[in-house]
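Cross-check.
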Amino acid sequence: MPLLEEEYRKEEKINGVIYDMSPSPNYQHGIVDGNIYSIIKSGLKGTLCLAFMENLDYKYHAQENNDYVIPDVMIICDRKHLKGGSYTGTPRFIVETLSPATALRDMTVKKEIYQAAGVEEYWIISPKERAVQIYYLEDGKYDLKYSYILQDDPEEEHYNADTVVTLKDFPKISMTLAEMFENVE
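Predicted model, tokenized:
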């Protein structure tokens, strides 16, 4: 029997509270996630690491409770922590792409979750602004290392579409701002 639209629910559970992630954010969110995911997935070929996009529950306190979040893009390298549709280890890299419904949570609560969990690199992306903030974990706290807003008009003074962004722990994986926001108007 096919699933009825109202039966499908994407949700997260943070501090015992369930947050409904439905309906899906606008298509630009998925385009950005897909752009980044495909570059990362290709860059991880031949390694033990895996990339996931919006489809793996991250149980960040598995020993304490059953809270979980669903990062937009995530790299994991310790496969022994994968079980069913969830992961209980420490991701090496996470991207959260903002939507009106999740922006505050992505920039505060989830950022704190990833920081406490020891995720080395966290990107917060705004498709609407075509912007990315890149945080590195230093001494247990996130430090904003890079912040870009795409300017892809070569006539503009601050043109930066060919600026290369490289993943800190994965120096072979890099992308330009133009590639990150390809097809996002």
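Confidence is low (pLDDT under 50) at residues 1-8. The radius of gyration is 17 Å. Passed to J.P. for a second look.
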